[in-house]
Design brief:
The chain has 5 helices and 9 strands, in the order H-H-E-E-E-E-E-E-E-E-H-E-H-H.
């Protein structure tokens, strides 16, 4: 009976405690991986393409984004998600071409926020640990761009790609007209300031000539008055 109990306890020990315990991610390993992962970043480039253009219709110009993920090494992979749909993309070193992994995003009608999470590959003790999280936002095409881009190319409402929420035409024109009126007032003020600045600059630049002219004119006037009064005295007037 005692022999049976001993065998049972030994067997139970093997079930509870694995013979080969898996090593955990140490602080040093994680810190080294985080430092390397800090170099991974993403950016986007706006692309355009003409579609259609059959015999009976003109081609349509559409916009899309090429998103580039840089500095991925064979130690890492990147999980990419977005707030537009539930799509999840995994990018690893096998996707790199000329040092960059790219994918296209064809949603240009809405602002999209991408989340990038960097993980260590499965062979590492730190697999499953999020080593870096960063974000990238792609803008949307501004449907009102053509209305004011030539008049106000630097105004935020007149940019081709924007990140502010969509607004209806009434709200857009209200904001645009308010900005236009403000610009007109500023231009009037600047024109007045420029006029007085020009006068001041002219006087400052030619002050010696102006002083000379004033002195000569003053001397001439004084001489004329003196001669006139002398004649009057001589004539007894």
């Amino acid at each position: 009976m005692k022999k049976f109990i001993t065998v049972f306890i030994i067997a139970l020990t093997f079930l509870v405690v694995p013979v080969h315990a898996e090593e955990s991610c140490t602080y040093k390993e994680e810190a080294e991986l985080r430092e390397k992962a800090s170099n991974i970043r993403a950016d986007y480039e706006v692309k355009e393409e003409e579609i259609g253009g059959e015999e009976d219709s003109a081609p349509i110009l559409v916009y899309y984004f090429t998103i580039s993920v840089m500095n991925i090494t064979d130690e890492f992979y990147v999980e990419v998600t977005n707030d537009f749909n539930s799509e999840k993309k995994i990018i690893g070193s096998q996707d790199i071409v000329d040092g960059i992994a790219t994918f296209d995003w064809d949603v240009s009608s809405e602002v999209t926020d991408f989340t990038f999470k960097v993980y260590s590959v499965a062979v590492s003790n730190c697999s499953g640990v999020t080593l870096k999280t960063f974000h990238l936002q792609t803008p949307r095409y501004n449907e009102n761009y053509h209305i004011c881009a030539d008049e106000f190319p630097d105004y935020y409402l007149c940019q081709k790609f924007v990140t502010f929420k969509k607004m209806d035409r009434n709200e857009f024109y209200k904001s645009l007209n308010s900005y236009r009126n403000r610009m007109e007032k500023e231009n009037e003020k600047n024109n007045k300031d420029n006029f007085f600045d020009k006068i001041f600059n002219f006087i400052n630049k030619n002050k010696f000539i102006i002083i000379g002219v004033i002195l000569v004119a003053g001397a001439g006037s004084g001489t004329y008055i003196y001669i006139k009064r002398k004649k009057q005295r001589d004539l007894g007037l």
